[in-house]
Model the fold of this input.
Amino acid sequence: MNTLAHRQLPPTPRDAAIAQSTYEALSPFGGMDRPLNVSVRDREREQTIDLPAGVVDLLVHVLEAMAAGQGVTLIPERAELTTVQAADVLNVSRPFLIKLLDRKSIPHRKVGRHRRIRMEDVMAYKNAIDREREQVLEQLTREAQAGDMGYGSR
Done:
C-alpha cells in the first residue's frame, strides 16, 4: 500500500449484495489460522492464489461492513496519523483529541508544530476505552438485576 490509507466509500446496492454473498461464502473460512487457497478469474484468465490467514479474516470483516452498506478505511498499523485522522478513527472531535493528547492519554510526537499519533497508539486507546465501557455496562446490568428493575432472568 503506497498511501497512508485506502478508503472505500459506501458501496452501491449492487456491490453491497455481492459483498453479502461473498461474505456468506468466505466467512466459514475466517479464523482458521492457516492460508486459504482461492481461485480467481475474469474473462481472460484464471489463477489460483494463497491468501494468508490474516488476510482472510480481514477480508471477511471488510465484506461484512460492505454488505451492511458501510464504507471501509484501511490504515497500516505503523502509520502516523494527523490529529484529524486520529479523531476520525476514534469518532471524536479534533478538539477532544487534542485534550487527550495534552493529558498524555495517547502518546504522540510533534513534527514542527504538528502532532503525529501512531495508529497502534490510537487503537490501544480505543481498545482500552471499549474495555472500560464494557465493564461499566456489565456493572450497571448487575446492579439493575440486583435491584429487580425488570432486567432479571426469566
Observations:
- The chain has five helices and seven strands.
- The chain has a mean pLDDT of 90.
- The longest strand covers residues 36-41.
